[in-house]
Amino acid sequence: MGRIVGIDLGTTYSLVAYTEPQTGQPRCLPDEEGRTLLPSVVSVDPDGTIVVGWPARDRLLKQSERTVYSVKRLMGKGRGDVEEELKLFPFRIAPDSESVIKIRLGEKVFTPPEISAFILRELKRRAEKFFGEETTRAVITVPAYFNDAQRQATKDAGRIAGLEVERLVNEPTAASLAYGLDKHQRALIAVYDLGGGTFDISLLKLEEGLFKVQSTNGDTHLGGDDIDNLLAEKARAEIRQQFKRDLAEAPDLYQSLRQSVIAAKHELSEKTSATIRFAVPGQGEYRREVARAEFESWIAPLIERTLAPCKMALKDAGVKPEQIDEVVLVGGSTRIPLVRRRVEELFGRKPHAELNPDEVVALGAALQARILEGGLKDMLLLDVTPLSLGIETMGGAVAKIIPRNATIPASASEMFTTYADKQTGVEIHVVQGERELVKDCRSLARFTLKVPPQPAGLPRIEVKFLIDANGILSVTARDLRTGEERSVEVKPSYGLTDEEVEGMILESIEWAEADFAAVQLVAARNEAEAVRRATAKALGEEQAQGLAPDERQQIERARTALEEALKTDDYKLIRQRLEELNQATHHLAELLMDTAVQTALKGKRTDEVNL
Ligand code: ADP
Ligand code: MG
Question: Using CA of residue 583, residue 589, residue 590, residue 595, what is the dihedral sign?
Fold first, then answer.
């Protein structure tokens, strides 16, 4: 009926929450044992029975081939997208997985949305038991960086579970709602989410009731699991020393050692010391007291790894840490005191941690659900572009038009002109990526705009990019003189795997320096080429007769020197020779009243002479 629940479909844990209409207070719904968390784990018994949550988690040890966890990592991905993931996660992908992945669980195969649907169905059941009636509508949260396919897959999961998904809400936005930050007139909010296996940082801007994602960053393989592995490895080494037994050879035992260290880790968030206890079968008990300070020295490098993505997100959003008004902690791992301290140091303010960090996203989802039920004002949530978009300019350089992390809907335009005389067409090549050269970016579309033959540099062509709310890009090129217009529609992320997106971003950082030289070279070459031609043309003009013989010689010499420099890859040398030629042609330029030649001689901006 009218009721809508909020669901946090997490990588490690999932929850369902509801906002009481009378009080307006959201709360997470407990299972029969009073637990609000549901492990996002699904297991299939030999008789085909589906087991979800805590009992499925216990089967991770003993029936690993019929149990699956972290399925969120596979949502909306194709076979090609998950090669890297498979190296880190023991997912058993069925061989016939082509576009949609299928996971083998015992004798059966399931797609990721089907597995997520088992989790959602369990939460639906929990809600129905709680309310004593059917529940069919839900708001589900997704990471802010989820692309179209991942969002679609999440919606599919809901449908499979018999839930109408009224809205997908970004997790950081939900967390901000839970803290009531929407009450602010305007605010910059940083949401730091350190969960079981993933780290996300999101910067949101709240303005007139709108939450806008300014930037997102993170690490898809960093979280509490890494801390668990680190502790388990330390314990294993000590057990090997003490008991002459290597648990690496007994996966079941190693898994239960992991459970022991996790218990100690949780205790260390509350107390200044904890003891890892583990029974080595037939050989007695391993006991290890760990002081918080020692624990912190072990995990410090892991926590440090969250800071670089935070800084990158700040940089992408163009804000300084001190401009952030609110910091919100999300994810079970933010209970660790060291994490809180480091976040506080980075942003220079105390982060919100009053609410339970593993419930906060679900609570926000329940508030959004209440908004949709009609009980609270509506709010619009906006998204960002994952990669920069631009067009090719001459020499294989990219002119970026819409930068990465721009809020959508977005539009931007840029003016271009022709490079050669009497050019009848301008080719527009749309590319996506962070690198500066076309060959390192992804080609999205090509089309040609017809222009009437005119002298080079005369046409004024406006290239406009528009990304609508659904993430669909359209590009229009218009000759402002003739009014001639051409446009194409491109789907930016179509066929682009996440690996490629991430790879491109990483590469752009790695290559930034090499790119800089390459771009400088392309720019210098273009400009030199234009000036060289214009000089040759100008020397042939009537007015050039006014030059003294040694002036003409000097120009010729400078031009030859530039031509020699153009044979090298040294952009500094090209620039120097270009400058010398410009100096030498000063008088010539004065002699020529023809404005077109003058502009060419003075060296236009490269993006103006390109295309
Ligand atoms: P996700 O969003 O990835 O599903 P959660 O936000 O629920 O995951 O976080 C789960 C992680 O939080 C696990 O690694 C768990 O061990 C860790 N965690 C939970 N409680 C504590 C605690 N008290 N101290 C330290 N880590 C904790
Ligand atoms: Mg989470």
Answer: negative
Q: How far is residue 534's CA from residue 543's CA, in Å, rounded to a whole number? A: 14
CA of 587 to the centre of ligand 2 (A): 69
Please state whether 45 falls in left (phi above 0), alpha (psi between -120 and 50) or beta: beta
Mutation to probe ligand 1, out of 333, 339, 361 (largest number of atoms < 8 A from CB):
333
Give CA angle at 199 (193, 204), nearest 5°.
Answer: 50
Spatial separation of the C-alpha atoms in residues 204 and 216, rounded to whole Å: 9
Give φ, ψ of 491 to 5 degrees.
-100, 110
In this prediction, residues 232-252 reach a mean pLDDT of 92
Please give the class, per CATH, of domain 224-297.
alpha beta
pLDDT at residue 502 in the model: 57
Placement of tokens 């840490």 in the chain:
321
Q: Which residues pair with 276 in a beta bridge?
A: 288
The two beta strands, 186-194 and 273-280, are unpaired
What are the beta bridge partners of residue 402? 389
The domain 389-494 is classified under which CATH number: 2.60.34.10, 3.40.50.300, 2.30.29.170, 3.10.560.10?
2.60.34.10
Q: Distance, CA 462 to ligand 1 centroid (Å)?
A: 51
**Active site residues per annotation:** 8, 72, 171, 193
pLDDT in tens, 280-300: 999 999 999 999 999 999 999
DSSP characters over 509-574: HHHHHHHHHHHHHHHHHHHHHHHHHHHHHHHTSGGGGGS-HHHHHHHHHHHHHHHHHHTSS-HHHH
- pLDDT 10s digits, 73-94: 998 887 777 777 777 776 788 7
